[in-house]
Design a protein that fits this description.
It is built from one helix and seven strands, in the order E-E-H-E-E-E-E-E. It is mainly beta.
Length: 101
C-alpha cells in the first residue's frame, strides 16, 4: 500500500487474485469492489473525459456518476459496480466509448 495515498484495505490478509490494468499486474482482494481495490493499489485515473481528455476516477462509488468506467475483458463497465475476479483484463475506457449527455 502506498503511504501517501488515503485509501486502505479492509482485510489485507484475505485471498488475493491477479488482474491486469493497462498492462500492469495487480494482486487485488478477491471479491472486493473493483474501484475501491484499484484505488487502494494506487490507480489514480480510470478514464479520460471525452471532451477535454481530463483524467477521471471514482466519485460516487454507487453507480450514479460513471466516472469509474473501465473496459473489462472488452466490455465497458462501471468499476464501482464490479467485483474483483481472477484474470480480469482491465483497461482505461476509451473516451469515444464513454457515454455522455
Amino acid at each position: 500500500m502506498k503511504k501517501d495515498f488515503p485509501f486502505q484495505e479492509i482485510d489485507p490478509d484475505g485471498p488475493r487474485v491477479a488482474v491486469r490494468f493497462d498492462g500492469a499486474v495487480y494482486d487485488l482482494p478477491e471479491g472486493a469492489n473493483l474501484a475501491a481495490a484499484l484505488l487502494v493499489a494506487g490507480v489514480r485515473a480510470f478514464r479520460a473525459t471525452p471532451i477535454s481528455g481530463a483524467p477521471r476516477a471514482p466519485f460516487c462509488m454507487m453507480g450514479a456518476c460513471y466516472d469509474c468506467l473501465v473496459r473489462i475483458d472488452g466490455v465497458v463497465r462501471q468499476a464501482c459496480m464490479t467485483r474483483v475476479q481472477a484474470g480480469m483484463e482491465i483497461e482505461r475506457a476509451p473516451a469515444r466509448e464513454v457515454p455522455h449527455g
